[in-house]
Design brief:
This protein has 292 residues and is α+β, with helices and mostly antiparallel strands. It folds into 3 domains: 7-52, Uridine Diphospho-n-acetylenolpyruvylglucosamine Reductase, domain 2 (2-Layer Sandwich); 59-173, Uridine Diphospho-n-acetylenolpyruvylglucosamine Reductase, domain 3, CATH 3.30.465.10; 180-285, CO dehydrogenase flavoprotein, C-terminal domain (Enolase-like, domain 1), CATH 3.30.390. The chain is 37% helix and 23% strand. The protein has 12 helices and 14 strands. The chain has helices at residues 14-24, 37-42, 78-82, 85-90, 92-97, 104-109, 112-118, 124-132, 149-152, 223-234, 241-251, 262-285; strands at residues 7-9, 28-31, 50-53, 63-65, 69-73, 135-140, 143-148, 153-155, 158-159, 166-173, 180-186, 196-202, 208-213, 220-221. The protein has a 5-stranded antiparallel sheet with strand order 4-5-10-6-7. The chain is globular and about 60 Å long. Bound molecules: flavin-adenine dinucleotide. Flavin-adenine dinucleotide binds next to β2, α2, α7, α8 and β10. Residues 29-37, 39, 74, 101-102, 106, 110-111, 113-115, 117-118, 123-125, 161, 166-167, 193 line the site of flavin-adenine dinucleotide (FAD).
Length: 292
């Protein structure tokens, strides 16, 4: 199938892009890497009458880091993040997760902003943003607002970005001393969206953040499982599987579909937590610890 007819604009400034989006209302859509939007249009799941291509807006590019945050422009491509020594050194969780995002060809075009704005519940980067407590910068007619990841993802393919607004940049807190991170996912084939995945951060003060993908209508934190896992990490043991699964059942809301039942996804979530704890414990016991 081919997309329905649409008009195309390629503004070179953020203001011009915002004006076009405001003028055309909900019928207009932002085009970034096009790796999700173009297939959706080809299948006619999306039928925007205007595409506003933000690819030439210099303000949306750039990767900078100070001692506090890594700031990435919304147009930063997955491949750029994956190959960046700055990202590896400052926010290693992203470097662990990015190889799981689709395939190289898609990572060459797909953007950070596009992935977060799409908010696919099975996507890797939204789960990382939640695990890291990233802050999204959204530009609209009233200026820029900063929205923490926990408020940004609002439901299935739904975010805090309103019509006429553009996600312009994302700030990720720089990894702190003694912090351990973990990313893993379980999919039927490499490159496929995962049935379940886990982005996790454990800080030196024993606080722990578990952020799951594929286990709800958005990336999901798991407070009950976090408490269990934090206890287990402190005492260097693996938690009881049944208790862990019960905690995860209270925290998550996994879908049942052709790929996996909700119960299978809960099982996979428990396996991923166990893998995280085992990986952290192995690294704590290693004579030379690596940051990832
Ligand atoms: C075969 C295939 C496999 C894939 N597998 C995975 C996978 O395993 N994991 C994964 O995470 N992703 C996967 N993807 C999706 C890929 O990562 C996309 O690149 C990403 O989801 C969207 O980024 P994009 O830049 O291409 O956005 P686009 O497709 O251009 O846009 C996506 C949506 O976001 C909106 N948007 C884009 N940028 C902005 C912005 N700055 N502000 C506000 N709204 C914006 C658009 O209007 C659109 O609604 C896959 C895609 C394909 C085709």
């Amino acid at each position: 199938m081919k997309p329905a007819a649409f008009s195309y604009l390629r503004p070179s400034s953020l203001d011009a892009a915002r004006e076009a989006l405001l003028r055309h209302g909900p019928e207009a859509r932002i085009l970034a890497g096009g790796q999700s939007l173009m297939p959706m249009m080809a299948l006619r799941v999306a039928q925007p009458t205007l595409l506003v291509d933000i690819g030439r807006i210099a303000e949306l590019r750039g990767l900078t880091c100070d001692e506090r945050v890594l700031r990435a422009g919304a147009l930063t491509r997955h491949a750029e993040l994956l190959s960046s020594p700055l990202v590896y050194a400052s926010v290693p969780l992203l470097s662990l997760a990015l190889p799981h995002v689709a395939h190289a060809a898609i990572r060459n075009r797909g953007t950070l902003g596009g992935s977060l704005a799409l908010a696919d519940p099975a996507a890797e980067l939204p789960a990382c943003a939640l695990a890291l407590d990233a802050v999204m910068h959204i530009t609209g007619s009233l200026g820029v607002r900063a929205v923490p990841a926990a408020e940004f993802f609002q439901g299935l393919y739904s975010t805090a970005v309103s019509d006429g607004e553009i996600l312009t940049a994302v700030e990720f807190p720089v990894s702190s001393a003694g912090e351990q991170v973990f990313f893993d996912e379980i999919s039927r084939r490499r490159g496929d969206y995962a049935m379940a995945g886990l982005a996790a951060v454990a800080r030196a003060d024993h606080t722990l953040r578990l952020s799951f993908l594929g286990c709800g209508d958005r990336p999901m934190r798991a407070p009950h499982a976090e408490a269990l896992a934090a206890d287990a990490r402190r005492s260097m043991r693996v938690p009881d599987r049944a208790r862990l699964k019960a905690a995860l059942a209270a925290d998550l809301d996994p879908p049942s579909d052709l790929q996996a039942s909700a119960d299978t996804r809960l099982h996979l979530a428990a396996v991923l937590v166990e893998r995280a704890l085992q990986s952290w414990s192995a690294r704590s016991n290693a004579p030379h610890q690596d940051i990832v």
